[in-house]
Every structure is written in C-alpha cells, then in structure tokens.
Amino acid sequence: MVIATKGAEPKKVMINFAEIKREVCKKYSITLEQFDGRDRGRLFCKARKLAWWRARQETTASLPQLGRWSGNRDHTTVYHGICMFEYARKGEESPVTKRKRIYAKKSWQEKKDRGEI
C-alpha cells in the first residue's frame, strides 16, 4: 500500500500479514481456517501464494514467520510458493512445471510403446 503526499515521494505503509490474509481470503471466497488448513486444493494454494507474495512485497516478515502464520508451514514451502507465483505472474512456465510435464509425456509414451495404453 502506498500513500501519496502532496509534493513528496510516496511512502510505503506497512500492513500486517493478518490483513493480507483477510483480503486474500475475501478475494478467493475462502475462510481463514481453509487458508491455514492442510488442504492443497488449487484454490487454497493460489490464495496462499498470493498472500505470501504480497507479504514479501508489503511487510518485513521473514519466510519462517510467514510459514508459522500460514498454518505452521516450512519456510521452503513459502519460498517455493512465492517463486511459483512470480512465474505465473510473468506468464512463464516454471522449471519445476516444465520438468514434470516432460516426465509425464515421456512416461505416457513409454506405456504406449509397451501397449499398455
């Protein structure tokens, strides 16, 4: 959030992660319990990734702090979510997604060659 003042540079206002979580949950029509829960449905994951990315942009919270505030997740999960959000935001395919897609295609082709499909 940026507040513009007359004749001065805009100054950044720090908001807390709880506010970001509430806004993201409202946007995705999910509850705070679902946000913090263990469900890995696409909707919940997208909401968490957006919240983590925004928190890194708008707060000074560390990755371990964000993980603890998001259902006690590991900091590497938070980092991965932020990276995946960045790739999606840019409209690019992440290296992880590309590797999984190539592996699935190769596996499918091998099954087809063996006559299993």
What does this structure look like?
By secondary structure, this protein is mostly helical. Helix content is about 65%, strand content about 5%. The chain has a two-stranded antiparallel ribbon with strand order 1-2. Strand 1 and strand 2 form a beta hairpin. Helix 1 runs antiparallel to helix 3 and helix 3 crosses helix 5. The longest helix is centred in the C-terminal third of the chain and has 20 residues. It is elongated. The model has no long low-confidence stretch (mean pLDDT about 90).
Q: What fraction strand?
A: under 5%
| Overall radius of gyration | 19 Å
**Structure classification:** mainly alpha
Q: Strand tally, please?
A: 2
| Strand order across the largest sheet | 1-2
Question: Overall pLDDT, averaged?
Answer: 90
Q: Helical region count?
A: 6
List unreliable stretches of 5+ residues: none
Helix content: 55-70%
> Biggest β-sheet, characterized?
2 strands, antiparallel
Instruction: Report how far the terminal alpha carbons are from each other.
Output: 53 Å
Overall 3D shape: elongated
Q: What is the H/E string? A: EEHHHHHH
Keywords:
6 helices; single chain; two-stranded antiparallel sheet; 117 residues
Provide a quick synopsis of the model.
With 117 residues, this protein is mainly alpha-helical. The protein has helices at 17-28, 32-36, 42-58, 63-68, 75-90, 95-114, and strands spanning 2-3, 11-12. The chain has a two-stranded antiparallel sheet with strand order 1-2.
